[in-house]
Each structure stands twice: as C-alpha cells, then as structure tokens.
Amino acid sequence: MTTNMIVTSDDILLKLCHSVAHVLSSTSASNVSHAGMVQSITRTRLKPDLGCFSIFDGGFSGLVVINFSAEAAIEIYRRYMLNMGMPEAELAFTHTSDEVGNVMGELMNQILGDFIRKVSKELQTSISQSQPKMLTINKELTISIDANLDEPMAKRVSFKTENNHIFYLEFAMDKTEFIKLDQFEYDEEFDPDSLLEQHGQGQSATAKHHSVNPVSPWQKVVHKSTDINSSNSTSDHVDAEDLLDQLGI
Q1: Which of 34, 47, 141, 211 has a 20 to 30 Å separation from 229 between CA atoms?
Q2: First to last CA, the chain
Q3: What is the helix (H) or strand (E) element at residue 15, kind and residue range?
Q4: Are 36 and 160 in contact, with CB atoms under 8 Å apart?
Q5: What is the pTM of this model?
Q6: Measuring CA to CA, how many Å separate 28 from each of 18, 65, 130, 246?
C-alpha cells in the first residue's frame, strides 16, 4: 500500500520563504536568508518602516505581508539598482523615496510570481494575486488587513540581509492540506536568465573567433585573386622584355 504524501500549510509557507530568499538574493546579488524557526501570531499587520502586502485567491486563499526596516529596504534597493547597472550617485538614500517603494513593490511582485509558479507546478492547483501595495509607515502606526479567511492560520518568519538587517514575512492562509493521490511528472522548467546568459556566451565566443581571424573568406578570395593578378602582371612584363631583347630594341 502506497503512503500518500500530504502538503500542509507549513509546507506552503516554506515554499514562500524559499521564493523570498531566492528572488531577493538573485536580484540584489547578495545573500538573503530566512530563519529556521517560524512564529505563530494572531493576525498579520503592516508595521514600520516599509510594509508591503498582497492577497491571493484560487486553489486556496491567503495574505502575504513583508515588513522592511528602513535599513533593510535601503540595502536591498541599492544592491538591486547597482546590480541593474545604475550609477550609485543617482540612487535614493531614504526609504521614504517613491523610487524605493516602487522598486520594493516590483520585487514583491517577482517573489509572488515565483511562488505561484512553484505552487502551480508542485501542488497541481492555480492561484492568482492582487497587485502588491507598498506603504511607508510611521513608528506609531500599524495596519491590519482583513483577507476574509475561513480558518486563518497566521505565521511570521524573520529574514536577514547580507549586512545583517532584519525584515519579517507575515503569512496568513486558510487551514488546508494537499494530498498526493497519484504519481505525476513535473513539467520541465528552464531559467530564462540562464538561457539568455548561455546565448550571450555563445555570441561572445563567435565574436572572439572573428576577432582572431578578422579576414573573411570573401576577403581571402579577393586577396588570392589579387596575388594571382599581380603574379600574371609580373610574368607578362618579363615576357615583353625578352621579346624586345630578341628584336634588338
């Protein structure tokens, strides 16, 4: 008898944590990691200094909140922009800047996109998300969001940037389980970034080959033809002098 695999809410939370760490690490070219412990909380809240949230629905419903400290937000923002090739002199210095909020909202969107792709593939279900909302929050203010969950389970996980700045992921979803009833194969996936990188390396190798051998085959034919014509011209000149000598001229 085959034992069925069961995926719980905690397993789904772990997938979300992996998406947060993976996306922020790869986009900022730094090391972002999550704690090995998860904390049970009564409800999710947006807290200072920079809070972002998104609601998702479909196969299961839930709410994702990420609360960044000012230091963590600025570090991730600046590393991301520098990794994109932006000059350091043009970057914002405070977390209250609109540019910082826009970038962190875009990163939140990428995180949820990665999470939804993994859930759709591994749990054979489909969920959709709302557009992430980013808010700059004062020290005195916290905001609660009602996601209309039937049996909400709320958890908090702490994350750490490469410079040891802390931020928190808060996650609430309906209590649910996914039970694997039958064997199935995952669709083969590829990383678009690695594919583009391989293509770029191929182009670089081709360019290097051409730089080593700058003369094209057509140029070689022309050069060869020129050499032949030059040789024939020399030969004709020698034959003409012999003829003049024989004539005594």
Answers
A1: 211
A2: 113
A3: helix 9-28
A4: no
A5: 0.72
A6: 15, 20, 24, 86
